[in-house]
Amino acid sequence: MLLPPMGFPSLRASLLPILLLAVAGCSDGVLADPTCTEGRSRCVAQVTLGSSFGCALLRDRSVWCWGRNDEAQLGYSTTDLCPEELPNGQTRAVACHTFPFQVVGLDRAVAVSAGGAFACALRDDGTVRCWGSNSAGQLGNGLTLPSASPVAARGLTGITAIAAGARHTCAVAAGLVYCWGANDRGQLGQPTTSRQCTVGSETIACEPQPTAIDGVKGVVAISAGAAHTCARTVEGIVLCWGDGRYGQSGSGRASAMPGPSPVGVLDGDSFIEGIIDVSAGADHTCARNADGVIWCWGRNEQGQLGSAPESAVPERCSGPCSPRPLRVQGLDFRVSAMDAGEDADVDDAAMDDAAMDAGAEASVDAGRPRDAGAEDADAGDARVGVGVPDVMDVQRVRDDVVAPSMVPRAIASGGSFSCAVLDDNTVRCWGDDSSGQLGDGRRVRAPQGAVMVIATPGAASTNPLQGVSSMAGGVDTACALLGDGSLRCWGSNCSGALGIGTTSVQSGPVPVTW
User: Cα 130 to chain center, whole Å?
Assistant: First the structure.
């Protein structure tokens, strides 16, 4: 189901197909809305998490960002510094802002997508504004210089969906796909690009302004991974292109795909059809049909395909993977919506509360790996549907053992963990808890089964966080949007990524400080 943000006034017809992540009805105090608590200074409509930073779209259509700001990804200049721990155990200071601050020069936003170290917003007139890192031209303004203020992506009008990857961006308009930024893995859907961009110590193929992908039409949704992109057509076919080293492009082989290629099923030559959701993770992709069946393909070292790593096809890749779609195992309930993404939060995902099906559905959102100028494959992994190989014990839903209140209605997957919003508006999380990203008040350095996200930090707490409308997952952070328009975040707080005014790790939900 295609939905604009709840609580927004009606948008022009051309923008109705916009799909938003983590949407809940609310309003700013300026615009009256009964779903927003009286006296609240800010009310969030959508939240998106990038690499150690996050952004929120408010009901008044302003965008506020917080966290790491070394490449102006917050949309404003800061002089604040935050300590960041390096792999060798040393620390360095990076620009940051631990509180949300409004992106200057941006109004009338209806969606926002956080990428590796940049972000893009879709405005109600169908144009796109981007800011932050631009070393590969991912801002779409024809340049490769970073921008601390939003700049217009060139030549784009009538845009209905956007998706930001590690260093590339794609948008949909009238069924056509336009992409820009890095093209070192064919993630723009172009076999070659004449431009070269310097990214760190590398010189890579790039295209700093939006370019249409030839031969692609009828696209209604888009999702960007680390260095690959997948789109869903109106006929329910999945098209993927870009990095395929782990089979994430679904072509049946482990290699880069220079252009779109319909994804074929694992055990035959026919295409998977009837797809209503497609979601690209860092090095894997998942798709779902109208019957709630999920296929996943790509990297599987952490069981992110919904099957044990050893059941994949390691001989075709450098590690456990499957270049062809595998049906996700152990899911006895149907899924209502799904999204994964490497720094992709506005693409093919809608948290549709009305899309529940009598006790057997869930929706999937995914997280995004860190992009610090490193090789995309090493930037981190997003997990879809599962955070650990035995997640079937987490999500299993059977009429004879699970009460209706335990039915998942939304799922948000982060770097190496996943969370499910149940239909009683509480949250369960599983997977990596080394940074407290499971939100149960502990920090356990081992994969965990499903645990309850608590209302307040503290291992002794047994009260669940309640009233959750939707979730967003980051590398090792998570945020829950409540029905009253407030925002709670937890997990790693490197560079102030939680927006709570500090840089200390939080093992349970803490209110974002406005």
Answer: 17
Domain count within the chain: 1
Contact assessment for residue 414 and residue 484, using Cβ atoms and an 8 Å cutoff: no
**Cα 79 to Cα 19, 94, 232, 371, distances in angstroms:** 35, 10, 42, 22
Q: What is the CATH number of the domain that holds 62?
A: 2.130.10.30
Q: Which of 272, 233, 273 is nearest to 251 (CA)?
A: 272
User: ∠ at Cα 10 (232, 8), nearest 5°?
Assistant: 90
Any domain includes 256: yes
151-195 pLDDT per residue, tens: 999 999 999 998 888 899 999 999 999 999 999 999 999 887 779
Domain for residue 6, yes or no? no
Strand order across the beta sheet in which 176-182 lies: 161-164, 168-173, 176-182, 202-212, 195-199
Q: What is the mean pLDDT of residues 132-158?
A: 97
Q: How far apart are CA 420 and CA 423, in angstroms?
A: 10
The answer to whether residue 5 sits within a structural domain is no
Reported pTM? 0.75
State the Cα–Cα distance between residues 130 and 152, nearest whole angstrom: 7
* Rounded Cα gap, residues 76 and 493, in angstroms: 20
Residue written as token pair 């794609």: 170
Range of the domain at 305: 13-511
**Can you state the percent helix, strand and coil of the chain, rounding each to 5?**
5, 40, 55
d(CA 238, CA 136): 26
